[in-house]
Amino acid sequence: MTEHPANRLQHSTSPYLRSAAHQPIDWYEWGEAAFARAKELDRPILLDIGAVWCHWCHVIDRESYENAQIAKIIGEHFVAIKVDRDERPDVDSRYQAAINAISGQGGWPLTGFLMPDGKPFFGGTYFPPEDQMGRPGFRRVLLAVAESYKNKKADLLRAAESLADAVAQAETFTGAHGAFDVEVVQSQIRSLTQLFDIRNGGFGKAPKFPHCSSLDLLLEQYQLTGGAGEGPESGRHLLAMAETTLEKMARGGVYDQLGGGFHRYSVDERWLVPHFEKMSYDNSELLKNYLHGWQVTRNPLLGQTAEGIVRWVNEVLTDQHAGGFYASQDADYSLDDDGDYFTWTLDEVRNALLPEEARVMELYFDVEAHGEMHHNPAKNVLWVAREPREIAAQLGLEESVVRLTIAKAKEKMLAARWPRPTPYVDKTLYASWNAMFVSAYLEAGKVFGNALGLSCRVFALKTLDRMIAEAWSEERGFAHRIGGTALWGSLDDQVFGVLALLDAYEATLDAKYMRAAQQTMDVAIAKYGDAEGGGFFDRSSDAPPMGGLEVRRKPFQDSPTPGANSVAVIALVRMHEFTDDAKYQQWAQKTLEAFAGIAAQYGMFAATYGLAASLFARHPLQVVVTGEANDPAATALERAANETFRLGKAVLRITGEPLPQSLPAALRQTVPHLPKGQALALVCAGNTCFAPTSDPDELRALLTKQSQAAAAD
Predict the structure, then answer these.
(1) What is the pLDDT of residues 240-289, one digit of tens each?
(2) Percent of the chain with pLDDT over 70
(3) What is the β-pairing status of strands 79-84 and 45-50?
(4) Which string of DSSP letters, residue by residue, matches 161-229?
(5) Residue 436, pLDDT above cutoff 90
(6) Contact indicator for 708, 688 with CB cutoff of 8 Å
(7) Containing H/E element for 240?
(8) Looking at residue 231, what is its pLDDT?
(9) Is pLDDT at 219 greater than 60 in this prediction?
(10) Residue 659: which residues within 8 A CB-CB, separation 6 or more?
(11) How far apart, in whole angstroms, are the C-alpha atoms of residue 200 and residue 310?
């Protein structure tokens, strides 16, 4: 390829954009300069949206954007804009909606063709460079679009205006308003039950994604029913659905069996062959799932998997010195491989292990001469194919010997993997994803109750303190990025930030976290809230114009992270419990009503709405544990409270006077009357408190469905 000067992307903060700096295309970043240039030249805009972790984004880069002939066509007929979807989720979400409406396609890379003002008229996802298997080649598409713009501009303009109007209607959920009905939760449970894959776990067919909020919804509904009922929607069946899914994922290739952490999704229904990128937002929510699953079932595999996620994140995805969770790890280290870092040939296994160890691991991970990877059939994805007892019986060994061999061999294989070329880690720190992991790590700190848990708590608070120092202000709440060029925050940044701050307050009773949480929630209401229609927009009302497809948007669907409006409801309900300020309850109800007319239709893709509805319909549980700091009896009560999963539950440890400033009303009235210095647990829900207890088993019982129902009455 002919050498040419680096383009303007060489100065970008985004690693994805910088990776395109060598391409022979005059790329612009998203901004007014690109639109002004398109209007000046009267050219359509070519919009490419992708991410540094995206395999097919790298493929289209190499095949098309580094192709001199295709680059020449782009240079002669288009103004080219490249966008990092992690950096600009506001841009991505709007054009995903528009291109999906045009072509029925979505995902990355997203390839859009826009009028000079940014309104789209055509697009798709990945295009091969030449016609291939019935798909039009990119060269032909580019020339056809350029010809249409030249000769049929008026038609394209009408189509673009019509599409923009349709997207505006859809993205603000016009007509979705309705009366709130908690029955939506049961509707979602029925949908999950119908979609459940009883053989492989998960929901629906390939490709399979984790659907983390759906798993939490199943676990919470099981806790509410206490396992009661009969048939496919009984409590026992709900638990079986969640536990089976968590087990199957943990044993599959979608989980990194050596290094820990989850890949983004599975291309097959058995969770065996993944897309190998690892995302921060997937692993934070899956960590919560496995913590909750372990709390409910005490299944050792679920607890071990949670620990595996934490160890991988600590090793690869964190700035241990300064605090912060990185954004992602790429799937590949080059364009010529597909998960080669994570996969193994039979020879590679045998070279890393002793013969007797290799024999066990070949059975355990189903490693054969012919593996699962199409680009290199010798490569095997590691997944748990046989239990140690089966291997022991087959090889005539003691099960304990097999278990010890597996543990040692996994350490050896991980050590052998380290020298391999490592997929790129995007060290960008995004506020919303960091907040999600702060919450997950604080929860791990409570649930683990060991040295690993303590390290999670310490690191979570270090990260949150960095977020407050570098990316938060009282006037605007959270920015989108920690460090680098400033990016205006989104609704996700605010509401996930509120939850992280509330979690930190519950863990420490430090008033600075409660103050920041309330200030951020108030920013969300004032600058993102729709006072007339209910719900929240994704961009602040005082943010500078986005440009392009400038439509207001209310994020609702869980894709790929929990829907921000539903998360806002959870934050508002929890804030109301601490402050007793009616406006938070009112905004929670208005937001639920804004989507009540369509929530049931979204099924598992709005499971976070189901969680929010469930929490709104009952009051979150508040647990106060009193007693001296080193009192073993108080520690046992705190442990019992933390070991029990209930959505939105707060566990507050009070060791003396004065009482924390922010306590729920019922607790503020009751705690001063408890015997001083005695180890007691007080459970409240709304304005009702149960009699205090000093018995950890009784405390666990108070956190079950029967006691919750009594509180609701």
Answers:
(1) 999 999 999 999 999 999 999 999 999 999 999 999 999 999 999 999 99
(2) 98
(3) parallel
(4) HHHHHHHHHHHTTTT------TTHHHHHHHHHHHHB-TTT-SBSSSSB---HHHHHHHHHHHHHHTT--
(5) yes
(6) no
(7) helix 235-251
(8) 67
(9) yes
(10) 668, 671, 672
(11) 25
Show the 3-state SS of 525-564.
HHHHECCCCCCECCECCCCCCCCCCCCCCCCCCCCCCCCH
Rounded to whole angstroms, the Cα distance separating 36 from 268 reads 45
Write out the two tokens for 175.
Answer: 């007509």
H or E stretch at 37: helix 32-41
The mean per-residue pLDDT over the stretch 469-488 comes to 95
Mean of pLDDT values over 500-525: 97
Spatial contact of 237 and 208, defined as CB atoms under 8 Å apart: no
Give the tokens for residue 582. Answer: 């009616």
386 near 379, Cβ under 8 Å? Answer: no
* 160: CB partners within 8 A, 6+ apart: 114, 115, 119, 120, 121
Helices (H) and strands (E) in the chain, counts: 28, 17
Reduced to 3 states (helix: H, G, I; strand: E, B; else coil), residue 136 is: coil
Distance, in Å, from the CA atom of 497 to the CA atom of 473, rounded to the nearest integer, reads 12
User: Are 441 and 456 in contact, with CB atoms under 8 Å apart?
Assistant: yes
Q: State the sign of the Cα–Cα–Cα–Cα dihedral 654, 656, 662, 666.
A: positive
DSSP class per residue in 374-418: SS-TT-B-----S-HHHHHHHHT--HHHHHHHHHHHHHHHHHHHT
C-alpha distances out from residue 79 to 30, 58, 59, 61, 705, Å: 11, 20, 21, 17, 60
Report yes or no: 219 and 232 within 8 Å, Cβ to Cβ.
Answer: no
Cut 0.85: pTM above it: yes
CA distance 470 to 510: 19
Taken as a whole, the chain contains a residue count of 713
Contacts with 236 (C-beta within 8 Å, 6 or more apart), sequence order: 222, 227, 229
Buried b (16+ CB within 10 A) or exposed e, 324-342: bbbbbbbbbeeeebbbbbb
